[in-house]
Amino acid sequence: MGHLGALLFLLGGLGALAQICEITEVDSTLVERLGQRLLPWMDRLSPEQLNPSIYVGLRLSRLQAGAKEAHYLHSLKLSYQQSLLRPSSSKDGNDSEAKPSMGQLALYLLALRANCEFVGGRKGDRLVSQLKRFLEDEKAAIGHNHQGHLRTSYYQYGLGILALCVHQKRVHDSVVGKLLYAVEHESHLLQDHVSVDTMAMAGLAFSCLELSNLNPSQRDRISLALRRVQEKILKAQTPEGYFGNVYSTPLALQLLTGSLSPTVELGMACLKAKAALQASLQHKTFQNPLMISQLLPVLNQKSYVDLISPDCQAPRALLEPAPETPPQAQVPEFIDVVLKVSGVSPSYTHSVSVPAGSSLEDVLKNAQEHGRFRFRTQASLSGPFLTSVLGKKAGEREFWQVLQAPDTPLQQGIADYRPKDGETIELRLVSW
Ligand code: B12
Question: 129 pLDDT band (50/70/90 cuts)?
Fold first, then answer.
């Protein structure tokens, strides 16, 4: 067991293990810097750019954005109510604005709860019915034999159940049953890079159901599934200490923090994860606002499950905008990046020259401007999602995977990843 194990064993005896997954000693300037990175996003109020996850993350943190925050929630309410409650095909035939997905509606409901509101009234009830309908449709898509495919994902399915749960809205046992089955049999949840995130989200939904006792006849099955999720996440710990990868670690820690069955093994794993995460904060690994929004609650010892009874009076420090860094007047250094596309014919390989520090999206734009390369993206809460390359659109259950050649999938999207000189980036059409 070693010294560390012995210490944890002792702490366990003292009942202190439950807090061992909590991150308490992070430098407050590092946390503040994370919060500051969210501020510019709070000025982007177009329906495409509004992101309820940012609001949730901030409210569960120890930081606040002053008047901006209330204004942001107001914009979220206007946008989500308008698009969700508008009939599917408006009279003017202009229905080009996509309606929020199941997961986006769920995040919106979490945002309301983060402001200590319960959905209610006629409009609120319609949103709840809509989310329940989404879940019922997905349940039907999975089918009796559990072999069918969801239109969204188990991640969004879990998010939907969690959002209804924190509003104390009961969903049918059969809806919860599909998520339980998926965790019990797990094959559907194990899609490489997304499995820990999905497991964690399912676990957060189960934690909420367990605490709220909304589905009493499934109580034992829920507790067992929760333990199973915890075990799977612990097994997915990398040698560096991350659960899955650095970006799934915040959600995993949200789940483990609230664990009702702390063990020595859990304590050791969390200590390692905390150290790894703290090192990554020093290295500015968290730039994406969605990722920051999932991390901030963890740095405040909170999780989405705390939205069952949020503390809206807790003191939070006011965020000041980050001081502007003066633009550098140097002549930019150029780098060469090789862009390779497989899965299309004729195949495509081309070298692109861009200023050092450019994002992969800049590389793609440059290739498009100067050659036959073509690409399209769709806005999402994580940023621009690559949907089509060289005229080939990813079909159902397919996506354009982004890799560093020869075979390493990137852990960031095209807007965030900054290739280095001489690197080869491959875009590969794959099924999931
Ligand atoms: C499900 C999922 C996928 C599915 C999405 C399709 C589906 N079945 O729904 C698939 C497998 C296709 C996928 C692909 C990718 N993913 Co993914 N994905 C997720 C997951 C688990 C849930 C997303 C979700 O539903 N959110 C909730 C809804 C309400 O939000 P949304 O914005 O409406 O959801 C859409 C976007 O998230 C988009 N999407 C999914 N992944 C990514 C990644 C990026 C960078 C972008 C811009 C968009 C995007 O698909 C969702 C459905 O339409 C998250 C986990 C997490 N912690 O957030 C990872 C996550 C967002 N993905 C990630 C990554 C890295 C990718 C890839 C870049 C991997 C790669 N090397 O190719 C690709 C995207 C490439 C591209 N074409 O642009 C990282 C992002 C980390 C970061 N730094 O931002 C996450 C956090 C996983 C992780 N721990 O590494 N993903």
Answer: very high
Q: In this structure, what DSSP letter does residue 317 have?
A: E
Q: State the closest ligand 1 atom to the C-alpha of 411, by its place in the atom list counted from 1.
A: 65
Which residue's CA is minimally distant from atom 67 of ligand 1?
Answer: 413
Reported pTM: 0.94
**How many Å lie between the centroid of ligand 1 and the Cα of residue 196?**
12
Separation between Cα atoms, residue 126 and residue 262, nearest integer Å: 39
Residue in 352, 281, 320 with CA at minimum distance from that of residue 25: 281
pLDDT at residue number 346: 84
Residue nearest atom 81 of ligand 1, based on CA coordinates: 412
DSSP-based three-state secondary structure for 171: coil
Pocket of ligand 1 (CB under 6 A): 101, 103-104, 107, 152-153, 155-156, 193-194, 197-198, 244-245, 247-248, 251, 288, 291, 294, 380-386, 399-402, 409-414, 416, 432
Which token pair is 64?
């606040």
> Does the pLDDT of residue 4 top 70, yes or no?
no
CA 38 to CA 44: how far, in whole Å? Answer: 11
Extract the tokens encoding 406. 């020869």
Ranges 108-117, 184-193, 295-304, 410-419: which has the least confidence? 184-193
Question: What is the pairing mode between strands 348-355 and 392-393?
Answer: unpaired
Distance, in Å, from the CA atom of 323 to the CA atom of 122, rounded to the nearest integer, reads: 45
